[in-house]
# Entry
Amino acid sequence: MTIIEAIPNISEGRQRHVIEKIVDEIHNLPNCRLLHYSSDVSHNRTVLTLVGSPSGLTKAILRLYEKAIQLIDLREHYGEHPRFGVVDVVPFVPIQKASTSDCIKLARKLGQLVSKQFKIPIYLYEAASTRIKNRALEDIRREQIKGTSDQTEKQSYGPDFGPDSPHPTAGISAIGAREPLIAFNVNLKTGDLQIAKQIAKKIRTRNGGLPNVKAIGIRIANRKMVQVSINLTNHEQTPLYLVFDTVKEEAERRGVKIAESEIVGLAPTLALVTTAAQYLNLSTFKPEQILESQLCTQFSLPRNELRTE
Amino acid sequence: MTIIEAIPNISEGRQRHVIEKIVDEIHNLPNCRLLHYSSDVSHNRTVLTLVGSPSGLTKAILRLYEKAIQLIDLREHYGEHPRFGVVDVVPFVPIQKASTSDCIKLARKLGQLVSKQFKIPIYLYEAASTRIKNRALEDIRREQIKGTSDQTEKQSYGPDFGPDSPHPTAGISAIGAREPLIAFNVNLKTGDLQIAKQIAKKIRTRNGGLPNVKAIGIRIANRKMVQVSINLTNHEQTPLYLVFDTVKEEAERRGVKIAESEIVGLAPTLALVTTAAQYLNLSTFKPEQILESQLCTQFSLPRNELRTE
# Structure
């Protein structure tokens, strides 16, 4: 069976009763399983991880939109994480017997259904893009904040489905297809937002930093800390420990210590095992030495050696 | 189906053609799968990991004994790791729908069969012991080297099955039942064996060190290094990173650096993920955030939070 992962991000991370109502709505549906969800008070955002068949996911996510639009008003939403919609982003990732093109098809179909049913502008992004190749989420965010005056650029702008203007309470929504990523946040023991922003700029690919890294610096509400909020889009090419070590080094150069870090949603075993192998200075550890990888044949890890430095 | 893990250790780690003949003998048998094997030149020892049903394992291991006894002569075996038999130890570990008592039953049955078929003294150890409770492998090793003159102690000594004296070429063999352990070796950048011995003594439970740790200091053949060779018998109570950090700290106190480390055989995901979580300073990582743990329902990880310091 084709299994796809969906990671809807919704713009509510503070009101427990609202989050629970939305989660309950999609909890026990056929051909779809909610694997995990976590809410962040500072971000004011909840990240859900679902796996299922394309039709199971479509039905579940339509219900998620319905409930979220009913319960959340974007005009009253304030959080540290950038957002433009009540259901802010919905990326699809291939998991089992699924290709990126299955995810593209699903993203486009869901986009049409959501725009029709809820009158929300839908922006397709990354592999699911139609207007330009691999439209980036950051570009859609920039467009929402700044618009554009450039006539040639305008061709690549705007939604793929639905009205041109944002929905009054639900905003817009981005639906995409992409490879798996690790959402990884590092909190710094300083209240100085500039330091988080400097480090984010230093490590992200866009500004000449590490490959496969997106990063922003944000403030953490109610805490005397700032955060480097990272998306690592290929942990096999850029190991998780290298990202962490680089943030740590850059922080130390500025006289700042790491407070703690977090992984939002799910991460593949291999990313964590590679990190452990680096920590322990393991010379020849192979993924096949992980007991569970041998016992669970349905989802097996790659058989190549881990890279450690 | 009852699935048990067996980890036979055989006293040959240098002659490729001998090792391969023994491995080939048990490679494709019914109800038994060879998951992994690795040979160590310094130890002159090969560690195999098999999983299977009790009857599948019994048949495979009897063939392993037959081939190993035919091809290896203990009188010509020299290695850094202590050993007393051609098939030195065979521990059984419960994996799926299996209890320790299933492993005890299997160990005792195999012990009888081996002693009868090959005329080798069989010592039952740990949970499978009969003469005293939880007879330790170290005590059997000590008995082989030193014997005993104490009449009261003698009652707990000697084999459970087979002749009283070691087989001329195959020695004795220890068969046991135990909980899973992690075999973890740390190599130090020094040729001074005393340093490895001191650190082993410092960290092992027997001498007041860390709980759940067995350790010896040994020389590495052909290399200017020594090794702290560790068995960690409960990684949930004593995390793997704590063992590594303690060895590192003790080495540094003696002006010695860690060269590299290795895990012999298999290790559970959780031990490595806990280590990664410690490295990355993850504040709230849960095993359910491991993608594969969610997808593979047959062998699931515990749902409690990871302990990090």
Remarks:
- The two ends of chain B are 38 Å apart (CA to CA).
- Chain B touches chain A through 46 residues (CB under 8 Å).
- Chain B is about 35% helix and 25% strand.
